[in-house]
Fold this protein.
Amino acid sequence: MKKFLLIFSVLTLSVCVKSNAQVKKVLADKIVAQVGDKIVLYSDIINLISDAKRQGQEAQLPPNPDCVFLEGQLIQKALTLQAEKDSLPVTDEDVDAQIDNKIRYYLSQFGTKEIIEEIAGKTIYQMKEDFRPAIREQMLADQMRKKILENVKITPTEVKAFYDKIPKDSLSYYESEVEVSQIILSPKAAPEVEEYVSSQLYEYKRQVEAGTKRFDQLAKLYSEDPGSKDNGGEYNMNRNDKNVDPTFLSAAFKLKEGQISPVIKSKFGLHIIQMVSRNGDDAKLRHILKIPPVTDGEIQAALKKLDSIRSQVLNRTLTFGEAVNKYSDEENSKFNSGALQGRDGSTYITIDQIEDKDLVLLIKDLKPGEYSKPMAYEERGLKKARVVFLKTRTNPHRENLKEDYNKIAQRALELKKQQKLERWFREHLPDYFISIDKEYAGCQVLGDWFRYASKN
């Protein structure tokens, strides 16, 4: 029964899975495990794995994801049972607030209530009702975990002892890392320019529907999407993919095979989409992207606005984070004050993780704490303008207590919490009725759970 913290972190996915957009029906559902009166269904495990894949986490899944996700469910059920036994407070108001937060998150990802309902195949009200039991259980489990770990602290002496046990040849080597934030403005093309580009796309649509041109040929000639242009504008797509612009996704999955959409506007520009083939939530489609051009005057206006914003930050009448929240055109950046994030979600990133080479050059001459002058740049064919803030920069080095104390302390604390959780489970699992389907007998991570189950 190892790696409790890792497995517990996986549990946060379960609320999304049980209450997310439509999931494919499992042909033969059954109860695969039980802790007390809490059951785990086969569909729970399958849906957890499917949802992780839809969220682009397939590469991070272990070789035996069904075993790991089942243990995650068993952990959650045990914690929930104990939370109920200890009468830990989770009110209807707490659950409603969490549900509202989740709906707001989906709105930030997909844009409108109508798009969410179309993708989910149910109304917002129905989604909220579906969320309720899973969110209540998750909140109870979180409360119990918090109670178990509330007094777990780490001292400098313990951090040093943890560090001293690490073999010197196993200490991490850190490349130079930076913390970088941006305020980004996206100048808008004039309405008459958008109208002209839209008329071009409608002409392509007319030619294909009249049979005088093929969609893929037009895409190769005129599309401004470098990722699909040479392939005739073709993409394979899943309707639950959160990495795709929601307006594009919604328009695409309204189409029948062979049908072409009207002109739609996404954050990348204007499109027409052709549905090639579809199988449930999976589809093959083509699109032609045209980006309405912005003038030098519109770029200069954006740079002038950024210069004014930068002055307010320098004069301390506005913090950089407040400026991002108030002015940036990048919606997702408003949740983290415009900070770039690495693959692990950290704001500390190495230079090689920054794909934007213009940004690399821009921060090269900045000192920590400095703000760049407003600069124009291009991203995926879109002309934008930005101000960059270099918060910190570290030099390449071997991990040590002086420069990396916080990272080491966090790892030491997580280990201490893990050990505390393991002790708690060893003490409490014998008190619970546990049943696990013999189909999972080969799962090594479930060894302790099977041992306790055999005593019932």
Notes: Confidence is low (pLDDT under 50) at residues 3-27. The chain has three domains: 4-161+401-453, 174-188+295-397, 191-290. The CA atoms of residues 162 and 432 lie 34 Å apart.
